[in-house]
Request: fold
Amino acid sequence: MECKGILGRVEHTQHLDLNLLRTFLAVYRSGSFTGAAQSLGLSQPTVTTQMRALERQAGRELFERLPRGVAPTAVADALAARVAAPLDELAAVAGPDPTAAGRADPVHLAGPAELLCARVLPALAPLVADGVRLRVATGLTEPLLDELRAGRHDLVIATTRPRGRTLISAPLTDEEFVLVAAPAWAARIGDRPAAQLPTALQSVPLVTYAEDLPIARRYWRHVFGRRLSSPAAVTVPDLRGVLAAVVAGAGFTVLPRYLCLAELASGALVALHEPDDPPINTGFLVQRPGAVENPDVTRVRDLVLGAGRTW
Reply:
């Protein structure tokens, strides 16, 4: 009842400004005043001033200020549920026709470099040939999602499901992880039972994506039920570099199967273990919140989601 009464004060204020609601929705969706300012083309002080004005009209705080960004209150959740759809429809009607100048704006797509290069960009080639323009960025999931909220990307391929309710996400593909090494190392280790593999691999150099061994640690925990104790011999912040080093004989690693299919088929790499229940990670395609004004964003999204079902 309290939220309903506060909403009534906001909605029926005589001098209510739609610009305040647009700014409110941008803050709500981006999770920060800075992100809202960037997406709206405003200064951060302007966004702060507008939110203070709206909070005065509401008679309650709409956002909890955090060390990094803001968190919506229950009042903000209720207000966003009421105004999001009408404001999005208004933006779609009032916005410029993306085809008026002859071609739509570029689609800004971001995600892990390896998946983009090995799977996504080849799938999008027909759209590019048909006139769709792409601007591709690579990076880690959390920074890319922050940039998505700030309006810098239209679509992000994330390795985890985004938290919160402000981003639209759909499952894209499952990555199966495989333990691999070059044939010389595989021959040296020999054909061992799974329980003996962790001990046998302690004498083999580990090549990995990062110093904290995120993929290899997960494999050890999921498959062997124990903690990985081997330090990294080589770290390369690109799984394609990890693949190249291991093919060349640098040691062993854990890779997404899609990335090393050709090497496994040719014998350049050997799967050291094929568990019945390999670790799998689900990737998600995440869309920038708000109305989609560029039809090419929808085309890219639909094609990537469709292709992902075959990967």
